[in-house]
Amino acid sequence: MRQLGADPDFIDMVADELLPAVTEDLPSRPAAFGTVLAHSASTWWRPGMTALPGPPDEGAETWLYEQAAAAPVGDVCIRMDVGSNEGAMVDDLLRLHALIDGLADTLAPVA
Question: What highest taxon heads this organism's lineage (predicted)?
Answer without folding.
Answer: Bacteria
